[in-house]
Amino acid sequence: xxxxxxxxxxxxxxxxxxxxxxxGSFSRAAERLCVSQPAVSSRVKRLEDVLRVQLIxxxxxxVFATEDGELLRTAAQDALAGxxxxxxxxxxxxxxxxxxxxxxxxxxxxxxxxPHIIQSYSDRFPDVQxxxxxxxxxxxMANLSGGMADIGVxxxxxxxxxxxxxxxxxxxxxxxxxxxxxxxxxSQVTVEMILPYRMIFLDRxxxxxxxxxxEFARFGAMLKTxxxxxxxxxxxxxxxxxxxxxxxxxxAQINARESRVIVELADFHATRNYGSVVERRVALxxxxxxxxxxLHAEFVPLV
Length: 303
Prior knowledge:
46% of the residues lie in helices and 23% in strands. By secondary structure, it is α/β, with parallel strands linked by helices. The strands form two sheets. Strands 3, 4, 5, 6, 7, 8, 9, 10, 11 and 12 form a ten-stranded mixed sheet that branches. Strands 1-2 form a two-stranded antiparallel sheet. A hairpin with a 4-residue loop joins strand 1 and strand 2 (63-65). Helix 6 (114-124) crosses helix 12. It is rod-shaped. The protein starts with 10 loop residues before the first helix and ends in a 5-residue tail after the last helix.
């Protein structure tokens, strides 16, 4: 089994040796490396001591490599060229990452609030690549914690460990009913008026369900609910006439049709908070930080 010799020299010593050979002078090598001439001589001597060979010969007029020095120079130049090539790849990749912002947003936010903000940011910072990915809330949070997204834009309920939430807007929750539903004729309704009906919610609206369930309990009633993962599914269920739904006002208005009516609740008030979210433990790049600042400066609720 082949074993590599354990050579205990440092990379600056090898680099200094190569510069001395290239310059043909210890003094010029010292100027190029921005160190003193004794430091250059010391590095070369340490390298020779470790390798136990003479690498450089000096005369009154010149400095040149010995036969062993030429052998080392050829091998070192090839090895360092490969090493520096890899390091340049790492540097280029790091520079690209610093000029890239990956945004994770829930589908409705991605389709409505963000496009014009991303466009205005790209106009201002054309060198920054902005990637927008729409996904369900649970996947959004997983992408943030896993480092696959730099920033999230979504509505949040409650607190999450290691997540920093910065609010953008607060929206009232409204009731959406089919156009032919008995409640559609009312401009306002009360909790007591909606007791007989089944409610449908997006499945992440747990706080809203709990709050409404408490209101139903005051009347001795139990909240009958269905849930949907996505907005199209919720709207499809609502259009069947089998249930009524609760949504933030902007989502309700965006999804308004002749077959759907928005109704205000007189005695039940709830809101959804939209904002940007980032991992507390992650240091934001300048590109991510500038996009977050732009998002909060330019965000305008649709209603």
